[in-house]
Amino acid sequence: MLWLLVPFVLYIGVLPFVNRVRPVVFGLPFLFFWLLAATLLTPLCVWLARRGDQRLVERGGRAGHE
Asked: Which long-range contacts (CB under 8 A, 24 or more apart) does 23-30 make?
């Protein structure tokens, strides 16, 4: 479930450090590029968290649901 912290850190935790207009990446201001990259990485992080949760259930552990 730690994978679900990655989007939070990308959006909130690192925001003061990436709040810049320059450099321009692919024609986008850096802040906009950063938020776009974080948005594209969020489904991957959710999928990894779900996959880890399923593995835990398959091994007989508890994952918060029965």
From this structure: none
pTM, two decimals, is: 0.69
64: Cβ contacts below 8 Å, ≥ 6 apart: none
DSSP string across 20-63: -S-SEETTEEHHHHHHHHHHHHHHHHHHHHHHHHHHHHHTT---
Domain ranges of the chain: 2-58
Alpha-carbon span 14 to 60, nearest angstrom = 36
Residuewise pLDDT in 10s, the chain (66 residues): 788 999 999 889 888 888 888 899 999 999 999 999 999 999 999 999 999 888 777 777 665 555
